[in-house]
Amino acid sequence: MPRPPGGAPFEVADEPALPGVAVGAARSPGQWPVLGVIAVGGALGACARYGLARLWPTAPGHFPWATFTVNALGCAVIGVFMVLVTEVRTPHRLVRPFFGTGVLGGFTTFSTYAVDFERLVDRGRIGTAFGYLAATVVSALVSVWGATMATRWATRWATRQAARWTMRRTAGRPETPRRRPR
């Protein structure tokens, strides 16, 4: 069996890495549309983040408000989106990969967050760096939790309002056929 330079021999697995997953399942033709929508969504999300960073640049050594805002906003949208697609409606199978993984995955950023932290430390802004580190984590968690709770409340309220409206429209009316105008 050929060996890669400086490495151990490589083999093709005859057994799946995960129990219950068929060998070659990841390469099934049904996965290509999923990969395509993730790629398109990721490009759109990354372009939106880049645009926001260009509109709201950060001076060297200062708090990176654009990245902080992107991550907090992205987490809030993730909270809303997940309630809508898991508790309110059953979307098309490509909606979650496109919007959740692609758009929001491309929009939010862990790598820029880490680079911003490192740049602040390199410039001697240790307090700002650790404040940014903590504030981002806290704001992300609070954003996703708050948006999830608010969306659940709003959907329950809308459901109750729709039920009340339906009951008011039908309450107390006998089932009589309508007359035709003469």
Short description:
The chain is mainly alpha-helical and 182 residues long. It has helices spanning 31-55, 65-88, 95-107, 111-122, 126-170.
Folded structure, characterized:
This protein is an all-alpha fold. The protein is 65% helix and 0% strand.
Shape: elongated
Provide the low-confidence segments as ranges. none
Strand content: under 5%
**What's the total number of strands?**
0
Q: Mean pLDDT, as a whole number?
A: 86
Task: Offer a few descriptive terms.
65% helix; 182 residues; 0% strand
Topology at a glance:
Elements lengths: L30 H25 L9 H24 L6 H13 L3 H12 L3 H45 L12
Helix pairs in contact: 1-3, 2-3, 2-5, 4-5
